[in-house]
């Protein structure tokens, strides 16, 4: 059996508004998704502004 989890990579937060309601709904309606989390903050590369990363992290 294979299960999945949902996470948001810090490099992706700059490109779009994250629909947290959609993520929670998908999690609640799937028996294959067993976890929801984030992948942290990444300041080494300048792919996404620190402020947007922190907002997503919260």
TrEMBL record:
Gene3D superfamilies: Metal-dependent hydrolases (3.20.20.140). GO terms for molecular function: hydrolase activity, acting on ester bonds. This is Uncharacterized protein.
């Amino acid at each position: 059996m294979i299960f999945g989890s949902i996470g948001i990579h810090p490099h992706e937060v700059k490109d779009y508004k994250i629909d947290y309601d959609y993520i929670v709904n998908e999690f609640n309606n799937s028996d294959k998704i067993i976890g929801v989390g984030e992948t942290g903050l990444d300041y080494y590369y300048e792919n996404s502004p620190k402020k947007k990363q922190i907002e997503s992290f919260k």
